């Protein structure tokens, strides 16, 4: 295992988190957008509440425009993708130019579908690029620790989102298990007691979603 | 030749804790043909291991204090034989280029040029240096606090006041205008006070010290610590640290004849 | 000339691939950081094997002499004693750093990577325009462009014997290893907002070096360390630093540098780490010192100059000043303190008032300027709107120092996109080409 600096450890972790955030929020956006076709504007409120982000959107069109493409809106898909890009492009020597290129392609794809009539069509390309990025990181990054730090970021983010969305216990439990296995294969600092507590919460009859969110967000110490 | 003992104490106080504090201290003299260092000792608080090195300006000691701290103290002590052999032999003339060039701190402007016009046109050698020394004695007002570390020779010449650093810079600027290689020297002087600065100029292959502030030639009551093109080359203390703190510093220098009972007991105690 | 039509058909796709791999340079426009693509023209500059042999000989000679000069200036200064170079062109130059007096870099190498800018005249002769011995950039662009050109048109490279230039990483690595004092190799970048950040990260990937900023390195006990997240640390033996001397070490150079590493310069002086390139090289690539390089070659190597300077005049010398005033309209004047295509003016393009002002300044500060004959460039074709059009271009050749100097069989060819401009710098909107050295 090669030495990875604190800066790069932090970037790898957040690259994992932001790529996951883009991937999952695009899927969620798709569901919400589907309701907008019937003019169900209240679905925007539901969407924002479930993700715990402020509902700043004035109409369906405004939602599509600003939730997807507004770089100034910290919750937008583009803002999150840009954060993934900022991390990726400064990790070239850790993860390789090929991996970086898929995040770069996702940025180009995202920018090219501004003003599109059918954004879900074009967003598929962004999702494809992220899936290719994940596949490639798994395939070509030789250092297991580097690979797993990205994956821990991804698992942490997914568990955080699923818990916020109040997904069924079986989904939460699956994600906790995947995270627990993954984090043990890194040199990341964390408390084993936190992982055990997450496991207990995920297996309990009544899922304590808020406690899971708090625990998982503070799990990794960088 | 004279046996001098010295002590230099530097104290820094930070308004908030700082860490990863890197320091470079140029406060101990270098062995040279004109000055033999018999002993030299540096202690730094909080304790840290300083590495001794040297460059064209002389000896320096550097190190780093990692843990958070709010104060820093350096204590340098030692003993030298001063004023040996009538001055340090200079390197060959072709190697003295850096001491003929102006630096941003010593570049002449209208005020320096006006002073230069007051000197006899063809003056050189002792005649020239006597004139410069006399000009500064008559006109320059020693006034601590009127200038700062980055005041240029030209600025000091315009106001005609300042401290030893400014007076030395003006003299250097005037000498270089006339093509005389010269250096800025920092060191300690017999008695109690603070660090001192003077000028060294080339004469007959040797560096001769002149102290414009005290209107005299540098003799056996001086200990030289560092030399450079200007004050920027010879900071006694340079440091960087992490932490948003402001820094207050105070320093004290003491030089005494080591033969006195006072001096010898002190040196004896320090030599472990 | 090799047939490159098959390759140039794919110009657009190659540029798309360059975009995909993030081949960009950053610049500040009105204080805002922007990343820009570096436009690539697929028609290569082609250098014959024989022509390159001459370049190679001349470049090695030049870099050897420059290295001797830097070592001499910070050491014995014999070239001053022998009156080959006047001392005011050395010790008064902003590139001279008094802190470097007496420094002895590992293996005596000062300029590990030299970027030498040349132009080719209409008659085929080459002229040196400028030496870059501090942090020359640009090798990564033709390196990755070649990779993509080979994908775009493999047949072109089957039928033409072109020396592979993707060995740059291996050459760089051997230069890094040659001077290594024991420990790992890092590339030190000022960060992602530097114009050449792509290059820093790409070269780190290709040489297997850690890409670091100042905060990941520390000086302890007289050595330099690379610090890991988990508390492990590794000694550093070579730092390929892409930050300028001024910002390298706040304890020795600019005290306000936030991107440097305190005391790294002392570790270097003690021989415990190699810095490439060594601090202080600016004394040899100053536009004012350029005039003296042919003299250095004779002085240090006892050889005649293989590659000539563009005819240059120093207004510092009475005779040259007279010539400059007489031939003002036919000359290009350069401010020695400026770089990146700035501070360059053409006598013929000045108004009468501008000319008078300039001449007054020239007489007041003759040391500040050099004047050169305007060389009749051999223009290179670029594709514009499907048609080849001629444009001004230069060549940055790279010389790396291992046991022996090594000249990279390629180079960065930059061109001006504006038909009236001589300025090829990427920061001023220029593009680039691959440079082919034919292997038979």
Can you count the helices of chain A? 11
As a whole number of angstroms, the C-alpha radius of gyration of chain A is: 18 Å
Q: What's the overall geometry of chain C?
A: globular
Intertermini distance of chain C: 12 Å
Structural class of chain C: alpha+beta
> What share of residues of chain C is helical?
25-40%
**Most extensive chain-chain interface:** B-C, 24 and 28 residues
Low-confidence stretches of chain C: none
Q: Total strand count of chain A, please? A: 0
Largest sheet of chain A: none
Task: Show unreliable segments of chain A.
Answer: none
Oligomer: heterotrimer
The arrangement of helices and strands of chain A along the chain is HHHHHHHHHHH
Largest sheet: number of strands, sense, barrel closure of chain C: 8 strands, mixed
Quote the average pLDDT of chain C. 94
> How large, in whole angstroms, is the Cα Rg of chain C?
22 Å
Protein model, in words:
The complex is a heterotrimer of chains A (222), B (272) and C (440). Chain A has helices spanning 6-36, 42-51, 60-69, 77-88, 92-95, 97-112, 119-140, 144-164, 169-183, 192-203, 209-217. In chain A, helix 1 (6-36) packs antiparallel against helix 7. Chain A is mainly alpha-helical. Chain A has two domains: 1-142, no CATH class; 148-222. With 272 residues, chain B is α+β, with helices and mostly antiparallel strands. Helices cover 20% and strands 43% of the residues of chain B. Chain B contains five helices and 16 strands. In chain B, strands 1, 2, 3, 4, 5, 10, 15 and 16 form an eight-stranded antiparallel β-sheet that branches. In chain B, strand 3 and strand 4 form a beta hairpin. Chain B is globular, with a radius of gyration of 19 Å. Chain B starts with a strand and ends with a helix. Chain C has two domains: 5-304 and 377-437, no CATH class; 311-373, Dna Ligase, domain 1, CATH 3.30.1490.270. Helices cover 30% and strands 26% of the residues of chain C. Chain C is built from 15 helices and 22 strands. In chain C, strands 3, 4, 5, 12, 19, 20, 21 and 22 form an eight-stranded mixed β-sheet that branches. In chain C, strands 6, 7, 8, 9, 10 and 11 form a six-stranded mixed β-sheet that branches. Chain C has a four-stranded antiparallel β-sheet with strand order 13-16-14-15. In chain C, helix 2 (11-20) crosses helix 6 (140-152) and helix 3 (49-73) packs across helix 13. The chains are: A mainly alpha (222), B alpha+beta (272), C alpha+beta (440). Chains B and C meet through strand 1, strand 3 and strand 15 of B and helix 4, helix 5 and strand 8 of C.
């Amino acid at each position: 295992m090669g030495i990875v600096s604190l800066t790069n450890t932090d970037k790898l972790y957040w690259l994992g988190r932001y790529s996951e955030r883009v991937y999952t929020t695009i899927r969620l956006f798709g569901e919400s957008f589907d309701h907008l076709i019937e003019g169900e504007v209240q679905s925007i409120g539901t969407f924002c509440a479930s993700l715990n982000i402020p509902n700043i959107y004035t109409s369906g069109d405004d939602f599509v425009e600003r939730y997807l493409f507004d770089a100034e809106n910290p919750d937008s898909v583009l803002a999150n993708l840009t954060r993934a890009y900022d991390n990726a492009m400064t990790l070239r020597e850790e993860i390789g130019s090929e991996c970086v290129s898929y995040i770069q392609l996702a940025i180009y794809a995202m920018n090219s579908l501004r003003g599109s009539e059918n954004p879900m069509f074009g967003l598929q390309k962004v999702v494809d690029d992220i899936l290719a990025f994940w596949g490639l990181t798994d395939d070509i990054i030789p250092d297991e620790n580097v690979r797993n730090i990205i994956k821990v970021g991804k698992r942490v983010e997914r568990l955080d989102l699923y818990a916020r969305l109040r997904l069924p216990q079986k989904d939460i439990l699956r994600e906790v298990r995947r995270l627990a296995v993954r984090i043990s294969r890194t040199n990341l600092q964390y408390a084993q007691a936190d992982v055990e507590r997450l496991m207990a919460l995920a297996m309990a009859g009544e899922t304590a979603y808020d406690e899971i969110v708090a625990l998982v967000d503070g799990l990794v110490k960088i | 030749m004279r046996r001098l003992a010295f002590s230099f104490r530097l104290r820094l106080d930070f308004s908030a804790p700082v860490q990863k504090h890197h320091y470079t201290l140029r406060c101990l003299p270098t062995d040279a043909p004109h000055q033999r260092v018999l002993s030299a000792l540096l202690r730094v608080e909080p304790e840290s291991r300083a590495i001794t090195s040297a460059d064209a300006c002389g000896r320096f000691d550097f190190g780093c204090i990692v843990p958070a701290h709010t104060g820093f103290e350096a204590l340098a002590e030692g003993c030298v034989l001063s004023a040996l052999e009538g001055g340090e032999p200079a390197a060959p003339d072709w190697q003295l280029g850096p001491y003929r060039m102006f630096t941003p701190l010593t570049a002449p402007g209208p005020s320096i040029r006006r002073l230069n016009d007051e000197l006899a046109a063809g003056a050189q050698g002792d005649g020239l240096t006597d004139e410069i020394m006399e000009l500064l004695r008559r006109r320059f007002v020693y006034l601590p606090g009127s200038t700062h570390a980055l005041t240029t020779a030209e600025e000091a010449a315009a106001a005609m006041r300042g401290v030893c650093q400014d007076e030395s810079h003006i003299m250097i600027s005037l000498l270089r205008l006339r093509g005389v290689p010269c250096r800025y020297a920092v060191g300690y002087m017999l008695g109690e006070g603070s660090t001192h600065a003077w000028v060294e100029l080339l004469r007959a292959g040797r560096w001769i010290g002149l102290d414009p502030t005290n209107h005299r030639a540098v003799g056996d009551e001086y200990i030289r610590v560092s030399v450079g093109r200007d004050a920027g080359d010879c900071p006694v203390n340079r440091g960087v640290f992490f932490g948003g703190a402001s820094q207050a510093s105070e320093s004290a220098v003491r030089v005494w004849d080591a033969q006195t009972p006072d001096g010898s007991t002190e040196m004896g105690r320090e030599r472990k | 000339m090799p047939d490159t039509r098959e390759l140039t058909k794919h110009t657009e796709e190659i540029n798309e691939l360059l975009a995909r791999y993030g081949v960009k340079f950053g610049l500040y426009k009105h204080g805002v950081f922007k990343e820009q693509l570096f436009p690539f023209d697929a028609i290569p500059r082609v250098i014959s094997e024989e022509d390159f042999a001459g370049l190679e000989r001349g470049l090695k000679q030049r870099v050897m002499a420059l290295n001797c000069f830097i070592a001499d200036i910070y050491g014995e200064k014999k070239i001053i004693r022998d009156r080959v170079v006047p001392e005011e062109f050395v010790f008064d130059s902003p590139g001279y750093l008094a802190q470097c007096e007496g420094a002895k870099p590992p293996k005596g190498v000062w300029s590990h990577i030299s970027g030498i800018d040349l132009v080719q005249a209409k008659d085929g002769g080459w002229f040196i325009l400028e030496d870059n011995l501090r942090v020359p950039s640009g090798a990564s662009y033709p390196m990755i462009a070649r990779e993509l050109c080979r994908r775009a048109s493999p047949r072109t490279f089957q039928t033409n014997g072109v020396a592979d230039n993707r060995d740059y990483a291996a050459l760089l690595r051997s230069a890094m290893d040659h001077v290594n004092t024991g420990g790992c190799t890092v590339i030190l970048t000022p960060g992602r907002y530097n114009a050449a950040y792509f290059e820093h990260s790409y070269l780190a990937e290709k040489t297997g070096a850690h890409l670091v900023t100042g905060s990941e390195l520390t000086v302890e006990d007289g050595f330099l360390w690379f610090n890991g997240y988990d508390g492990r640390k590794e000694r550093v033996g070579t730092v390929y630093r892409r930050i300028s001397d001024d910002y390298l070490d706040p304890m020795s150079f600019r005290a306000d540098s936030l991107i440097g590493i305190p005391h790294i310069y002392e570790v270097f002086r003690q021989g415990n780490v190699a810095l490439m390139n060594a601090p202080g090289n600016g004394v040899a690539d100053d536009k004012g010192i350029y005039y003296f390089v042919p003299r250095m070659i004779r002085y240090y190597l006892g050889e005649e100059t293989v590659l000539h300077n563009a005819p240059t005049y120093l207004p510092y010398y009475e005779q040259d000043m007279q010539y400059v005033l007489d031939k003002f309209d036919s000359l290009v004047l350069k401010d020695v303190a400026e770089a990146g295509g700035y501070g360059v003016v053409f006598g013929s393009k000045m108004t009468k008032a501008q000319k008078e002002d300039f001449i007054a300044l020239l007489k007041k500060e003759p040391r500040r300027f050099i004047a050169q004959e305007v060389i009749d460039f051999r223009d290179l074709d670029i594709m514009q709107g499907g048609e080849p059009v001629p444009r001004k271009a230069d060549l940055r050749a790279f010389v790396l120092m291992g046991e022996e100097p090594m000249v990279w069989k390629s180079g960065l060819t930059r061109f001006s996109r504006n038909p009236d401009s001589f300025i090829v710098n990427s920061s001023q909107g220029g593009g680039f080409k691959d440079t082919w050295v034919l292997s038979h």
